[in-house]
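REQUEST FORM: STRUCTURE PREDICTION
Request ID: SP-0412
Submitted by: Lab K.M.
Chain count: 1
Length (residues): 487
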Amino acid sequence: MHTRRRLSLLAAALLVLLGGCATRPINPPISRTDPTTGYSFEGRQGNLKDKDNLVILAFSGGGTRAAAFSYGVLEFLRKTELVGPKGNKVRLLDEVNMITGVSGGSFTALAYGLYGDKLFADYEQRFLKRDVQGELTARLLNPSYWGALWSTGWGRSELAAQLYDEILFNGATFDDLSRGRGPLILTAATDISTGSRFLFSQRVFDIICSDLNAVRLSRAAAASSAVPVVLSPVTINNYGGKCNRVAPAWVKPFIDSDDPPRPAARAIRSLKAEEALGDSVHRPYLHLVDGGVSDNLGMRGVLDSLEILQALHEVGAPTPLDNARRIIVFIVNSLSSPPTNWDESERPPGTVEVLLKSAGTPIDAFSYEAVELLRDTGQQWRTARLVRDSAAMAANKDPAVAAALRLPNAEIYAIDVSFPALKDRAEFAYLNELPTSFVLPPEAVDRLRAAAATLIMDSPEFKRLLKDLGAKLVAEPAAAGSPAAAQ
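STATUS: Completed
RESULT:
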C-alpha cells in the first residue's frame, strides 16, 4: 500500500518536472521592415482601391455571448442579398472590408478570417455550444499541466491558447490570414503596463521588429481575452530598434511635427503610444491582457483610422476616402448591464461586486461615446459638404476656405447592433442577464444569433443605407427567438 502511494507521488512529481520544461512560444525577430507588406491595413490597401463602399464590422468583448452575437451578424450578412437598381445581386458579407475583434468577439473575427464560408458548417459545435470554460478549468486542475503553469512566462493564458488551437484554430498563424482573400481582421489586446491598445497588425509588429505572420491566431485570441486576474497576461518579446525601421510616411506628420494635421487628437495619442513600444532596451517584454480593458467595442481603432484618413485627406494626401462614397460600420455590441438592487439596502455591495461594476461602468460610457462620435463625424462631413456645395462657396476662390472644406465625400452609416435597441423588452431582459463566460446554454446561443438579425433589420441606419443604395433585400431573416431564426 505504501509502495503504491510512493509510486503515485513519484509519478505526479515526474509529471510536474516534465511540465516545468514547458516554454511559451517566442515571436521571432525581423532584420528589416517594409511598410507596404505584411498583414496590416497598409499592406492590403490594394484591396480597397476604387471602392465605393468601405464596410467595417466592430465586434465587442463579452465571452461566448459576444462570440455568438457577432456570429449572428455574419449569418445575417451571409444569408442576405442586395439587389441593386440594375438587378445585380451581391451578398452583404462579401462587401465587408475589415473586422475588428476584441476579447470574445475576436474568436468569431479570427475564425471567419481563417475559414471564410466554411466557418458556418461547424462553428457552433466547435466553439459556441461547447463548454470551453469547463475544458479550460479541467486542464488547470490536471496535475500534468501544473509544472508548465509554474514555468516562467507560461501561464494560464498559454494553457488557454493551447486549448483554442486544438478546438478551433488548428495551428493557423497570421500567415494563413495574409494569404487569404477575405476581409482584414484586426484583433486588439491591452498593454497592461501602459493601458494602451495593442493591435495584432504588422505595422505594430514592425515597431517591435517582429514577424506577425509567425504568430498563432490562438495566441492573439488568448491575449485579447485574457481577463486580468482570472487569466495571466500573454507575454511577447520586444526587439524594437533592431531592424532599421523607418516609420511609414503617413505616420510621420502625426508623431514628428509640432503642428500635426487636425483633427486627430485621439489618433495622435494612439500613434505615439504605439511608437513608444519600440523601446526594447527598457521594455524587452510586453505583457498583454484583455482588449476590453482599453476598448471593449473594438471601435477605438475605427475612430482613430477615420481621424487619420480625414486629416490626410484635408492636406491632399491620397487615402481610400478619395473614392469611397459610403463608410458603413456595424457596431456589434454585446455588452450586458444587469440591473442591481444595491440602492434598496443600507448595506453597501461587496468588494467583488464593486470591482466588477467599477470595471464595467467606464466601458459602458466609452461604448456609448464611440457610437455617438461616429455619428457626429458623419454629421460634420455632411454639413461641410452642404456648405462646400452652396452657391456662395462655389464662388469663393480663397484657397484657405477651400482647404478648410476639403472633407471626405463619403457618407457614414453607424449601424448600432446592441441589446438596448431590441423592441422586445422580454428578449432584451433575457439577453442582458447572460453572463460573461465561455459557456452558455445552446438556447442562449441561438437567441443571441437571432437577435443580431432582428436588430439589423430594425435599425434606422440600415434602412437609410438600403434607401440610399436604391437596393432591396432578397431574403429577410426570421425574427429573434423564433425557431426559424435559429436554424
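NOTES: Residues 14-19, 479-487 have pLDDT under 50 and may be disordered.
Reviewed by: T.R.
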